[in-house]
Specification:
With 453 residues, the protein is an alpha/beta fold. It is built from 15 helices and 15 strands. The chain folds into 2 domains: 164 residues, Aspartate Aminotransferase, domain 1 (Alpha-Beta Complex), CATH 3.90.1150; 238 residues, 3-Layer(aba) Sandwich (Aspartate Aminotransferase, domain 2). Helix content is 38%, strand content 14%. The two termini are 25 Å apart.
């Protein structure tokens, strides 16, 4: 398994120019040998226009000097979200479905949130969005329903790039007669759809894969995988939890069948949501109380979930929408504003990824996954690494002393780390950034690495 070593090819200075790039409009460099979704649109002047100071001023947690580089475990929330949650608890901390105004306000808040999240992922209708406690519970709910409807299609394809949650829920179906096939990532740290094609057959029921690895940040070409799976008559279940805060989600473009996210990775409090094609959700056999309609979203929203956090998710979408309107002031449509924000975030995070790779190269770190400069748009700014001769736990403890929060261990992806020859008991160090992080924080991170070695 090739690893990124110090001075590895593909780690170039921030000011470097790739001569293979063609000049696009406004000086933007377009790497034309990649699909549009993966094009590296990277220029310093455009990055400088990202309103990082205003972004940071929106997040109260960022004002004490601590560096949050553990965002893959959960991101911070903007003040708009915190105020919305507090307002809900103060003024309408009641159950839904009542005839009195405050209960009706809860119903209205959930309806607004459903419409907002539908816009965030480009659902066809808000009824395709279901709310719950977390993404894992939705993975289990859908897997149980799939397990009850295998029929002649008893093969389920999973990947070793995924978070264990999107593996274990499918492995559990083996007791119901399912056969598990493994779509393995290659030495470049990516899943290749042509490898999936070899696994597909008329017996395939569903392909479960990630949109981006929560451990090494690799982004998956779900749209291509979905075309192959659908051609074989199979469905596609996507874990978008890690990718959620890092770019545009468009379920219609991805052409998947189910997709789950965790709101607390997208700047809301703890909650999760499921998107699914309405006709498929309505056809699934699910547990429900007798008086609950056998249609989505009601049939999938089991029990009472955290309404105030759903209101917070609505506010998180509003935060992104407001950011998009600041970046593209002429934008009037909500979805277009969300796309403007999330595309700008992707562009800005390319700069963060490259800066992090530079600092890790200086520290003689071994980096796992994508490191090539012309492939940075195929990853999120989530980097797993190890320092020579220093246990991961020691690295994270030393960084914590310097007011930098990172994580060590297997990142809930022990199979992935095993492919890199790493024991799940020790694993690696993970630094995971989002759009409120800065180049100055990356520089401080690099200085801290130099101090502890």
């Amino acid at each position: 398994m090739p690893l990124a070593k110090p001075n590895a090819p593909g780690i170039a200075p921030l000011s470097g120019r790739d001569e293979s790039a063609d000049e696009g409009k406004n000086g933007r460099q377009i790497f034309c040998n990649l699909p549009r979704f993966h094009c590296l649109r990277y220029i310093i002047s455009e990055m400088a226009s990202f309103p990082i100071e205003r972004v940071r001023s929106s997040f109260p947690a960022l004002h004490d000097g601590f560096i949050f580089f553990d965002n893959a475990a959960g991101a911070q929330s903007p003040k708009l979200v915190l105020d919305t949650v507090a307002d809900h608890l103060l003024n309408r901390n009641v159950q839904r479905g009542g005839r009195y105004p405050r209960s009706q306000e809860v119903d209205a808040a959930i309806d607004r949130a459903r419409a907002s999240v539908a816009l965030l992922v480009n659902a066809r209708t808000p009824d395709e969005i279901s709310f719950g406690m977390n993404a894992t519970s939705f993975m289990r709910l859908i897997s149980l329903a799939i397990g009850q409807s295998l029929k002649d299609r008893r093969e389920i394809i999973v990947t070793d790039l995924d978070h264990e949650a999107n593996i274990a829920v499918w492995l559990a179906l083996e007791r119901d007669g399912a056969k598990i096939l493994w779509w393995n990532f290659r030495d470049d740290g990516r899943l290749h759809p042509e490898d999936l094609e070899k696994l597909l057959s008329p017996r395939t029921r569903i392909v479960a894969c990630t949109l981006a690895s929560n451990a090494i940040g690799s982004i998956m070409d779900v749209a291509r995988a979905a075309r192959l799976a659908h051609a074989a008559g199979a469905e596609v279940f996507v874990d978008a939890v890690h990718y959620g805060p890092h770019g545009t989600i468009d379920v219609q473009a991805l052409n998947c069948d189910y997709l789950v996210c965790s709101g607390y990775k997208i700047f809301s409090p703890h909650m999760g949501f499921l998107w699914g094609r309405l006709e498929l959700l309505n056809a699934l056999p699910t547990f429900r109380e007798e008086f609950v309609p056998d249609t989505a979203p009601a049939k999938l929203e089991i029990g009472t979930y955290i309404y105030e956090n759903v209101a917070g998710m609505d506010a998180a979408v509003s935060y992104l929408e407001n950011l998009g309107k600041q970046i593209a002031p002429a934008t009037t449509e909500r979805r277009k504003a969300l796309v403007a924000a999330t595309e700008a975030i992707r562009d800005y995070e390319v700069q963060l990824s490259q800066a992090m790779l530079e600092e890790l190269t200086k520290a003689n770190a071994t980096v796992y996954g994508i490191v090539e400069k012309d492939a940075l748009r195929q990853r999120t700014p989530t980097l797993c690494f190890n320092l020579t001769g220093m246990p991961p736990a020691k690295v994270t403890a030393e960084l914590a002393k310097r007011n930098i929060g990172v994580r060590d261990g297997h990142m809930y992806s022990p199979r992935l780390l095993r492919r890199f020859g790493l024991a799940k008991e020790t694993g690696a160090v993970r630094a995971s950034l989002v759009h409120y992080n800065t180049l100055e924080e990356v520089r401080r991170f690099g200085s801290a690495l130099a101090e502890i070695q």
